[in-house]
Amino acid sequence: MASRLVQEGGRRHDPKYIKSLYERQKRVNESIIDFVGQSIIPVGARVLDACAGPGGLASAGAIDKWWVVSNDLARQFALEVKEKFKGSVVVSSATDLPYANGSFDAVFYVYAINNILRVGRVISETERILGDGGVMVVSDPGPSVWMSEVLLYWAAGGYEKSIEYFQNKDYSYEDYAAFVAKEFLGVPDDELKAKIHQINARATTTQDKKSVPFRVRELLEELYLNNLFSKARENGFVLEKAGVGVTALGQKTSPSDEQVWLSLANIHPINADLEEYKSIIGRIMDLRKNPGLIPGVSEDMVRSPQRIVYPVLVFRKQIGEHSSAN
Ligand SMILES: C[S@@+](CC[C@H](N)C(=O)[O-])C[C@H]1O[C@@H](n2cnc3c(N)ncnc32)[C@H](O)[C@@H]1O
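That is the input. Now the predicted structure with S-adenosylmethionine docked in place:
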């Protein structure tokens, strides 16, 4: 959540802005539920929304078909969910879940693992609480530009502004960068530093230099997806379905000209060999760079600076092939 807070600055206290974020997340969750579909998670299934925030799956009507537990680390969000929706609410960390082995049929992480960062730990906990054949759904927009700026500063200098955040923390930006490299991206620090350094060194014109944090972000995204797939595989998951959704802040066409969240009605499926993780990652990266290639994405969405492209990955825990030892 750190990056969000910094990026959104004072706006996070504006009730109108908060309401619009809730609206966006409701739509994102609706599109994900729709994409996963009943053939993968049948009616009556035991579903954990591991980082539900102020609404999550519950805000998108999941409780009408599944038995849903809305879990979150933040107590104030849990209280909000309890007040607004039906279903059970629990306060706990996704890195240490208080549920018995095999107690869920599906676990969702919507806009979540990119905040928690501990990819391996989250996936091994998920594997433990899922029954055989259980489903893990992961969907988030990946690393933020803010994270990219911090790592760029760490590897090559520049972008001091982003590290102001660490002034009041009991850990330094170097600690943060090392943690991100190990837990989120699954690569050694020196290797990551060298890669970022190279991107920075290649930028010569002013225009190139401006785009460096975005190039770094692309690198981080690719490493994150690689880490996610390899941790999923190590924990006995196979990819069953993949797609890409888009949401963007755009102009309403009706009289008021207000800014509203526009979303792709249906998540665009990725038609590639699901066992070929590299090609799935390649496809996600292509669509992230050029969302205009996705049917149903309007010009307004493509041009919006608030555009969010979110892959949706549906994994299934293989039956009997893996023990919860790790
Ligand atoms: C961007 S919000 C997304 C919420 C929700 N899934 C949605 O779609 O609107 C991320 C949520 O993750 C929660 N979170 C962060 N770290 C967590 C952890 N270790 N365990 C459980 N929840 C966590 C935050 O409190 C926040 O509510």
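Residues 1-9 have pLDDT under 50 and may be disordered.
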